[in-house]
Amino acid sequence: MKILVTGGAGFIASHTNVELLNAGYEVVVLDNLLNSSPESVRRVEKLTGKKITFYQEDLLHEEAVCKIFEAEGFDGVIHFAGRKAVGESCQIPLAYFDNNITGTLNLLKAMERYDVKKLVFSSSATVYGQPETVPIREDFPLSVSNPYGRTKLMIEDMLRDIYQSDHSWDIALLRYFNPIGAHESGEIGEDPNGIPNNLLPYVAKVAAGQLECIQVFGNDYDTPDGTGVRDYIHVVDLALGHIKALEKLNTHPGLVTYNLGTGVGYSVLDVIHNFEKACGKKLPYRITGRRPGDIATCYADPAKAKKELGWEARWGIEKMCQDAWRWQSNHPNGYRS
After folding, report:
1. How far lies 106's CA from each of 100, 109, 174, 180, in Å?
2. Structural domain of residue 130, as residue ranges?
């Protein structure tokens, strides 16, 4: 099968590309390189010994996207492309609506035009908003507390409407929790441009001496240590979930939804202390005010994915931090190292 991977030079996508190639899929990557590097594609080719067809293109360019579909003849799509920072989305919501919604709309029009109706969508646990209880199941009410989450929920709604209008589509909505870590080889990992928005790469850069101090956004949440609790999942576990989702789509299930998480919540301070073990030193941190759009506690009930996909996360927070530190210490400047 030939799979189009949008945003395919990014963090989660690059790890998914490794697993796709190892599983025998043919991979075509489309990425505008806004927040990613073509070096990740080359590293994936090196790790797997297999070639990737790469297009530097933007989903906002509808005609160019259609030309790629016409040239390649895809069997399915994994859709990662999109802006993804909660805090940034609160500052520039229009950019998020334009990039994430319009880009997805162009992709879906191309898929319909060229009769490619298998789609794995990279959604997010942010679509659950402020859950009343945890762990979070797929049938929980949906709401959002920030523009990034709103784009994910709007796209989910679009996909539900498309499926209701045409049952020949097979769509998997994968609601990620918090992917961290890196490939065990240390050759690919998270490489954000500029100062990281996410916790783990920020912690890693403090550990490497590139940033002065970790900012902890709020210590007055209703959690054991007052800091936000999240379900952190190893990025390779997450990548393997996409392989299982593609296999599920080949059974023509219609539209299906799965949480991809571990079912275990760790606080910000838990992550910092586990990273201290990985890098062998104390890390300075400073408590600051809460970040707009953040919630106190969020972790998954992953039972449905285990039952229906045969998938479950294998690795805990210690390995996530060890692998992230190996990537950071091997590549202090990411793919520019």
Report:
1. 10, 5, 20, 29
2. 2-181+233-262+301-313
Q: Which of 25, 55, 128, 148 is catalytic?
A: 148
Per-residue pLDDT tens for 285-333?
999 999 876 889 999 999 999 999 999 999 999 999 999 999 999 999 9
**Within-domain flag for 90:** yes
- Structurally, the chain folds into a number of domains equal to 1
Q: What pLDDT does residue 125 have?
A: 93
Classify residue 196: in a domain, yes or no.
no
For residues 317 and 167, give the distance between their C-alpha atoms in angstroms, rounded to a whole number: 40
**Interior/surface letters 41-57, b for 16+ CB within 10 angstroms, e for the rest:** bbbbbebbebebebbeb
Alpha carbon of 282 to those of 201, 205, 266: distances in Å?
16, 13, 19
What is the predicted pLDDT for the residue at 323? 98
CATH number at residue 28: 3.40.50.720
Does the pTM of the predicted model rise above 0.85?
yes
Per residue in 181-238, pLDDT (tens digit) is 999 999 999 998 888 888 999 999 999 999 999 999 999 999 999 999 999 999 999 9
Residue 276 located in a structural domain: no
- Contacting residues for 247 by C-beta, under 8 A, at least 6 apart: 309
Q: Check if 96 is active-site.
A: no
Measure the CA–CA gap between 155 and 85, rounded to whole angstroms. 17
Alpha helices in 141-234 (DSSP H): 147-165, 199-207
| C-alpha separations of 104 from 60, 80, 156, 248 in Å | 8, 10, 11, 22
Question: Is 106 in contact with 65 (CB distance < 8 Å)?
Answer: yes
DSSP 112-159: HHTT--EEEEEEEGGGB-S-SSSSBPTTS--B-SSHHHHHHHHHHHHH
Is 118 within 8 Å of 249 (Cβ atoms)? yes
Residues 150 and 287 sit within 8 Å (Cβ to Cβ):
no
Is residue 69 in a domain? yes
Name the nearest CA neighbour of 149 among 79, 199, 101. Answer: 101
